[in-house]
Amino acid sequence: MSSATSSIQTRKTLKSRLREGENLYGLFLLSLSPEIAEIAAFSGYDFIIIDLEHGAGGIREAINCIRAIEAAGCSAVVRVPDVTQAWAKKALDLGTAGIMFPMVENGRSASDAVSFCRYRLDGVRGCAYTVVRDSKFGFDEAYLANYIDNLLIMCQIESEEGVKNVNEIVAVDGMDCVMMGARDLSASLGLLHDPGNPKVKSTMRMAETAVLASDPVKGGAYLAGMATAQDMAADLWSRGYHIVLGSADVSLFKKAAVDDVKANKKSVVAVSGV
């Protein structure tokens, strides 16, 4: 083993932590700010999802966030904008611990997602592993033997069609985790402004039941979701979720900023008496 290879620091993968029975708590990063990413990582999140679907940044911003997250001892996941080979290869070559595909609605889409993450003959991923960050630019001599087991592949179910096909999505070999998308699901049901509607909740339960009935060790999937005002983190944990996203960086900053302004206005009133 070369000195360069032996100096590569390793940490437990997200997949291995899930297999060991851990529950993981994460955060969406929409700002794609390396500083915010680093602060979040030091705060104790198990992983941070760099959001290229709704965040304003791209690949260059994402790699800087990944470096900041990893330097702080945390794991990074990249959510790509859609289920395409081009976006997947870009995200994977950055060296992410996981990848999330949005709006997966059937088994074919989930199978495509997995194939984009694997080299031929197991998939269709482009082979540049000797020169990209994912293999430590070729310094990781065990990369090809371990890359499949090290990567967490997450598919989002966030439509009525996706829920209808949840069993075939879960059955796809190599698809590790189903991430529920409650807001998009409510929109697909015609209830965009009423995410707490009983119909949304019952549809969510159908998908949750199917995922939780599978065995991740035997080819099933872990269950992930994002806490909302209608479904708090404690609610998701109590229903058996393995992964929970607590919030997004912009949401946390928004709340902190609004609370700060309100507190200042109260203090001004208290001093002036007006």
TrEMBL record:
Keyword Metal-binding: yes
Keyword Metal-binding: yes
Keywords: Lyase, Metal-binding
GO molecular function, one term: metal ion binding
Highest taxon, organism lineage: Eukaryota
InterPro entries: Aldolase/citrate-lyase_domain, HpcH-HpaI_aldolase, Pyrv/PenolPyrv_kinase-like_dom, Pyrv_kinase-like_dom_sf
Domain HpcH/HpaI aldolase/citrate lyase: 25-254
Stored PANTHER family: 2-KETO-3-DEOXY-L-RHAMNONATE ALDOLASE, ALDOLASE LIKE
Name of the protein: (rape) hypothetical protein
Organism: Brassica napus (Rape)
